[in-house]
Design brief:
The chain is mainly beta. The protein folds into two domains: 5-36 and 189-318, Lipocalin (Beta Barrel), CATH 2.40.128; 50-176, Nuclear Transport Factor 2, Chain: A (Roll). Helix content is 14%, strand content 45%. It is built from five helices and 18 strands. It has helices at residues 5-12, 53-67, 71-75, 95-108, 178-182, and strands spanning 78-85, 91-93, 113-126, 129-139, 147-157, 163-170, 174-175, 190-195, 199-207, 214-222, 227-237, 242-249, 254-262, 265-273, 279-290, 293-303, 306-307, 314-318. Strand 3 (113-126) and strand 4 (129-139) form a beta hairpin.
């Protein structure tokens, strides 16, 4: 399959075309993703104490069970006489009643999801009781704004050696801040390079100083000597309630995109104008495999009214940090 160099940078920036003239070759370099951690903790290493690991694992088990709509698996995390107090103040007593409650939630709110449970504090009350406090991030569906609510849980160590929730209290939910919306794209932050037989693409993404945007810079160089660079700003659109990006290249082209999450994939619906005045629309897809590897591809690409064939997925790997050159 042939692609011109124009499509090379399209592969790079979710649907952003660069050079307007020819050169053939296999799929052009794609948009290296962006990845990293929250603004407060980026470039830091988190060390988890052994006594805290069961509770971190429990939080992830809860998220996974909710995603699978497995009420029984959630019930197994509670003691037989557990108490659950939801954000509306409604109390549910006993494991079986809690299972029935979540089964009803899954039936009536089929698109609701828990994105993350962020543990903030763990406090040992006794050798067999631990208090956990944190924040849970949820949404009614992929089209709804994420919300957050605080919670307090008491874990009890039972005779079989397993920690289970004896009491769980959710506090009223509140809208998520723009920074917390963008934290969904924390995987984008970092330095990336993609290289094939036709071109080399370098991309760097960092948080803005105020934490309200992700700022992305990219450069493209083809084997025949053509060059282009550009910038992308990603932020939260409070009017449309969606993550949005604006991209500009050094040749005068510009683009905007709307980002939507579906499980481990991000779909970006984009539209823009090349430096020569051609209109472009497309859908691109990022698939997150792990913090070090992401695949990217575009679909439904239309350039100046001409439909282009879909691209095969391209694998992107994060660049390692520069070696430590400190004097010995």
């Amino acid at each position: 399959m042939k692609h011109n160099t124009l499509l090379a940078s399209l592969a790079l920036f979710s649907v952003f075309l660069t050079f307007s003239h020819s050169a053939t070759g296999q799929s052009a370099p794609q948009a290296p993703p962006i990845v990293d951690t929250p603004a407060e903790t980026r470039n830091s290493t988190i060390v988890v104490a052994d006594e805290h690991k069961p509770f971190l694992a429990s939080a992830q088990i809860f998220v996974d069970a909710y995603t699978k709509r497995d009420a029984a698996a959630i019930g197994a995390m509670f003691t037989a006489d557990a108490e659950f107090l939801d954000e509306f103040g409604q109390r549910t007593q006993g494991r079986e009643a809690i299972i029935a409650l979540f089964a009803n939630v899954f039936q009536t709110s089929q698109e609701a999801s828990i994105h993350e449970i962020a543990i903030e504090h763990l406090r040992k009350i006794t050798d067999r009781v631990v208090m956990e406090e944190g924040v849970v991030f949820t949404s009614e569906s992929s089209n709804h704004v994420r919300t957050q609510s605080r919670y307090v849980a008491l874990h009890t160590l039972e005779k079989d050696g397993k920690w289970r929730i004896n009491s769980l209290k959710n506090l009223p939910s509140a809208s998520v801040s723009r920074q917390e919306h963008l934290m969904q794209l924390a995987w984008l932050v970092g330095n990336w390079v993609n290289e094939d037989s036709e071109s080399v693409v370098h991309t760097t993404c960092n948080w803005s100083e105020d934490g309200n945007y992700l700022l992305r810079r990219f450069s493209v160089r083809t084997r025949d000597g053509k060059e282009m660079n550009g910038v992308q700003r990603i932020g939260w659109d409070p009017a449309r309630k969606i993550i949005r990006s604006w991209t500009f290249d050094s040749h005068g082209g510009f683009f905007n995109g709307l980002w939507t999450k579906h499980d481990k994939q991000w779909l970006i619906n984009s539209a823009g104008i090349t430096d020569s005045g051609d209109t472009i629309t497309a859908t691109s897809i990022y698939t997150i495999h792990d913090p070090e590897m992401v695949t990217w591809q575009y679909r439904s690409l239309i350039v100046a009214g001409n439909v282009r064939e879909n691209m095969e997925p391209i694998t992107m790997v994060k660049r390692p940090p520069a070696p430590n050159r400190s004097a010995k």
